[in-house]
Design goal:
mainly alpha, Multidrug-efflux Transporter Regulator, Chain: A, Domain 2, 3-stranded antiparallel β-sheet, elongated
């Protein structure tokens, strides 16, 4: 029987399109562990590390933070967890993303309104309606006591 292939950190980085620095960081964060080290101190990884890094990358692509990925990996390796637990984490992430999207849409609309009021690009800065609107908005917030500086 052929021994399983082991990868150095460089080969693992190439196989997964993840930088060596990122792999070291994931190790530091407890998301990845080398299977062994050589006598010279080189980290060696097996195919499970390749699968785990691909999982991490895909989860990041879906918006999961490293803490959330750690939670998913913990659930994945738990005998007590079930698909419902993972689904719950995914639903929470989806709700967080929806909230962020709404906040970004509000910011985008505010910028659209500011851009619209600036219809004379040749005005001097002290007459710029965008700067004036931003200053007025901050002054209004301070008067109301809602500034979060």
């Amino acid at each position: 029987m052929k021994a399983p292939a082991l990868h150095t950190i460089g080969k693992l980085a190439l196989a997964t399109d993840v930088t060596s620095d990122a792999i070291r960081y994931y190790e530091k964060e407890g998301l990845l562990t080398p299977i062994t080290k050589t006598g010279a101190g080189y980290r060696l990884y097996n195919e499970d590390a390749v699968r785990r890094l691909r999982f991490i990358k895909q989860a990041q692509h879906c918006g999961f933070s490293l803490a959330e990925i750690r939670e998913l990996l913990t659930l994945k390796n738990s005998d007590a967890a079930c698909c419902k637990d993972v689904r719950s984490v995914a639903i929470d992430k989806k709700l967080q993303l929806a909230h962020k999207i709404k906040a970004l849409q509000i910011m985008s609309q505010a910028l659209t309104e500011l851009i619209t009021i600036c219809n004379d690009e040749a005005r001097p800065l002290d007459e710029c309606p965008i700067l004036a609107a931003l200053e007025t908005s901050m002054a209004d917030k301070r008067k109301k006591g809602t500034s979060h500086d």
